[in-house]
Amino acid sequence: MPKIGMEPVRRKALIDATISAIGERGSLDVTMSEIAGRAGVSSALAHHYFGAKDELLFATMRHILTELNTDTRRALNMAVTPRGRVSAVVAVNFSDDQFQPQIIAAWLAFYVEAQKSTELRRLLRIYARRLHSNLMSGLAGILPRTEADRVAEATAALIDGLYIRRALKDGVPDAQTAIALVEDYLETKLNGRSLP
Asked: How far is CA 43 from CA 19, 55, 75, 97, in A?
């Protein structure tokens, strides 16, 4: 019988173990037993909390998105200019909490799995809409709407592409270089325009 009050702690441990296992394996080809072992709980307890492995994977992706959203909200609240808002969104996506090998591997695995899973595809669509909206919160104050829309779309594609390259251990090796590449693109598109 599970100990009272331990469920949130164990659920978080199972999610962290899922991220770790996916990061090490580089795919979603991990078992509930392997994840439970990493979390220090029994396989039966993992099934008790999440049911099937698909539910644990969904909860893990939702957790990653929640963490990213929390970090982004915090960064946007500290930005004082429209241009600062755009840079804040870029910086959060390449922060130490987000741009780490295990999280990057999880993103890549989830993108692949979303081709087969309606629920994961829905979460990735939420992520894409949220990223676009967050970028637009700054770009719409600098560029005409249509142009801001295109720049937001391209910036999001650059962010996702740099994650894929990093997951494949090809191209950009570190966060600062990735941020610099995205910021260079933004400077080109904004032509030095910004608002106070």
From this structure: 17, 14, 38, 28
Residue 174: Cβ within 10 Å count: 11
Domain ranges of the chain: 54-190
Cα 46 from chain centroid?
24
pTM confidence score: 0.88
Residue type, 77: N
The three-state secondary structure class of 26 is: coil
Q: What is the pLDDT of residues 15-69, one digit of tens each?
A: 999 999 998 887 788 889 999 999 999 999 999 999 888 899 889 999 999 999 9
**Strand stretches in the chain, DSSP E:** none
Assigned fold of 54-190: Tetracycline Repressor; domain 2 (1.10.357)
